[in-house]
């Protein structure tokens, strides 16, 4: 997975339609999530599309998440959130302002509100998992 800074560098040079294309591409690049993990327990509440996030690693030194969505653009947004936290120490993610890390992407200006409404819930889920491991 590309780093968030690498993604932002590319994103900054694109216009609206090409940004959508990049988001779709990022979603396709997510590590595959097995169908068996797409359950009610891994479903993120409050998203307009179905979004699943599964903490694949229980190591506080290196968090790892599997994630998926049934909508292409939403899956790209999921990929941005995962890129911000993937393979980082739990203590770092627990203290991280993920929304601030995503702010340069100006998602609220680029996408409809129903495409981004579940992002805070997904971030909360990731941070809660990180906090549990960091404790």
Automatic annotation (TrEMBL):
Pfam families from the UniProt entry? SufE
Residues of the Fe-S metabolism associated domain: 13-128
SUPFAM superfamilies from the UniProt entry = SufE/NifU
Q: Could you tell me the superkingdom of the organism this chain comes from?
A: Bacteria
Q: Which Gene3D superfamilies match?
A: 3.90.1010.10
Q: Which protein family is named in the record?
A: Belongs to the SufE family.
- Specify the protein name: Fe-S metabolism protein SufE
Q: Which organism is it from?
A: Erythrobacter neustonensis
């Amino acid at each position: 997975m590309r780093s968030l800074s690498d993604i932002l560098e590319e994103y900054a040079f694109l216009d609206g339609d090409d940004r959508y294309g990049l988001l779709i591409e990022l979603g396709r690049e997510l590590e595959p999530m097995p169908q068996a993990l797409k359950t009610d327990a891994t479903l993120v509440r409050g998203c307009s599309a179905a979004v699943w996030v599964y903490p694949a690693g229980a190591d506080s030194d290196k968090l790892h998440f599997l994630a998926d969505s049934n909508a292409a653009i939403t899956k790209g947004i999921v990929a941005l959130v995962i890129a911000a936290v993937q393979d980082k120490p739990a203590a770092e993610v627990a203290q991280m302002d993920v929304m601030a890390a995503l702010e340069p992407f100006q998602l609220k200006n680029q996408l409809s509100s129903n495409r981004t409404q579940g992002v805070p819930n997904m971030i909360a889920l990731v941070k809660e998992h990180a906090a549990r491991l960091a404790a």
